[in-house]
Amino acid sequence: MEQIADLSMLGFGLSDRTDHAQFDILLSNLGAARLEQGEGSIPIETGDHFLRDEKVDFIKIDTEGLELKVLRGLPSTIARNKPAIFVEVENRNLDNFLAFVQELNYRIEWRYRRYPWNENYLILPR
Asked: What is the CATH number of domain 7-125?
């Protein structure tokens, strides 16, 4: 496997709290990479922090199992803008995701399963 240079060049990651993380490449596949919170050189911040003054119409989240942390870091952005949200949800997070959709007063508009371990959802405000 080819060595990847300094991954801190990615800038920052999103979650439900300020933190730091390291980059973890799963299965030697950069597309299946994720951030491991707790230590590392990549700063983690909430989406609300970065989007506080922005108009947001659409959010896409594909974070290899960290989708709920990213969503929970966006409450003000979602409440203010009511964006369409396209999110990949790991099976292990499905019950919590469905509860979160209800909390937001959103509905599932469309869903698509490509892999057995996750499913993609388009959710819209009611």
From this structure: 3.40.50.150
